[in-house]
Amino acid sequence: MIYIGKFFKGLWSAINFSRKLILNLIFFGLLAVIVLSIPQQNGAINVPEGAVLKLNFEGKLVEELTYIDPVDAAFGEFFSSNDQPKEVLVDDVVKVINNAANDSRISMILLDLQSLHGAHLNKLDTISKALINFKQSGKKIIAHGSYYSQSQYFLASTADEISLHPYGAIKIRGFANYPLYFKDALEKLKITQHIYRVGTYKSAVEPFIRNDMSPAAKEANQLWLDELWSQYKSDIAEARKFETSNFDDKADQYLAKMKQVSGDYAQYALQNNWVDVLQTDQQLQAKLIQEAGPSFSGKTFKNISFNKYLSSLNSPAALTLPSQDSVAVIVARGNIVDGKQKAGKIGGDSTAALLKKARLNDNVKAVVLRIDSGGGSMFASEIIRNEVLAIKEAGKPVIASMSSVAASGGYWIAMSADEIWAAPSTITGSIGVFGTILTFEKSLNSLGIYSDGVATTELNNISLSRGISEDLSDVFQLGVEDAYDKFITLVAQERELSKEAVNKVAQGRVWTATQAQSFGLVDKLGNKQDAIDAAAQLAQLDNYDVITIEQTLSEKDQFLKELFNTKLVSTYILPEPSSNNLLQRVISSFGGLGEQMIEQFDEINQFNDPKGIYSRCLTCDVIY
Fold it and tell me: Among candidates 566, 575, 556, which has minimal Cα distance to 33?
């Protein structure tokens, strides 16, 4: 048996070596051909006079793009993998809209939002305000789609005219928060849960200890969800000039209205003034050809896409040299984890390094920490907060600017700033901590597998295969309670509140920024630009530039990124992505349930705090 095992092991090593050798030869062969054949181009992008700007960006609106290895991204497309996230920067969308307003070549905007996957209310509101400013230039906005999600419709509501395909629909159902719960599943798998937490409303660990949402969590979640929904309704009603009750029906009212139109969703939208006209894509195209003129080919209307127009703004000719004084913006987006992390996650060390870079840069006079995070590692959060304190000690003001979510650890890294700014819809608070350890002694025992041995002290008697003693569990709980006390003590100290007042609104409870402002957890309501203006004012700056300090790619990564982003590379090795990916079809067959399970487990999988203590809001995600 030993020799047979060695034979197959050697055979596999030989096959694996051959596989890697062949793939490398193919890769570098293609690489050589591509590099040698890339033509020299001036990169100029033509914007036709009187063109329609198509806002047809694709993906999820984010504050910072998630880092993707360029080779993985390229071969992910080659093998029809859908693992890579599609994202678009909010700042890029705003930049395009603002420039188009003053660009005489752009005659109007067409909102083509079918590929917008979703966004939190504050990101939508930022873009919505830019669209409203665009209309003030005297130019028109038209929105057209086959279907509108709630996120898409929020932006479409700013248009002068909303059109819908006659067979289309608008999905406005309100906001919801429905996590999955695994208590019974863990018990069936005989997995032992060791949960340590502080806070009546700290519901982050509830999916592992319950089969449903606790009454306290329901009470808290209902409050901030209602506040978000109220903001959504008010903004839509103001834009469309009707009452909020026009799209806030109860189920029986909705049924009665649908009966009146014989179940025709498009007619329902038209009669309720959700849209202005029902028309097909071809009818819209004919209309725009008449209004904007035909394209060079004559087959469609004169237009330029979002990506092409953005590229024209990012051309070398469009770049300007920074002046002496600057306000530095540092984005902290994603889960807060220990160590160094790529963009899309907040690494304690890597984010602190970005803040340190701003502190040591003599041209930087003020810093805006832009936060979009539900928290994570308590230790990593403290590492980041320490650097915020160091910037203040260096005489540079720091403004914390909250995006969609700045809760738990996201609030931890914000609380020491000179001022905290947030959007009215920002989800914040969740001041509480927890620790969780899952052990598998019962699972292993059921399979006939046991762990036994000796140790020099009882403190070394902790194992995933043996469990945790009652005394050591009590020690862990004490550590979590100490962490919570440190949290509320720091909040009280930094926000100049009493510890009792903080404890009253803490307890892991989630709030919207408008609610948090009344408790003193937030200073002012405003967007990212408001925070930048406030930072400049604190630093007494009149003329200044705004710079974003972000992680720099290595020379190798930069080369590969530029290489695999070229159109020629795509022609050589990257076919159009296939929608027939087996895994994607299996996951989608669960109607989104598969993605939800993967996302929740991925959240837990990222936990790496050295003491196992976390300040994380796992229920801050809203179903849009």
Answer: 566
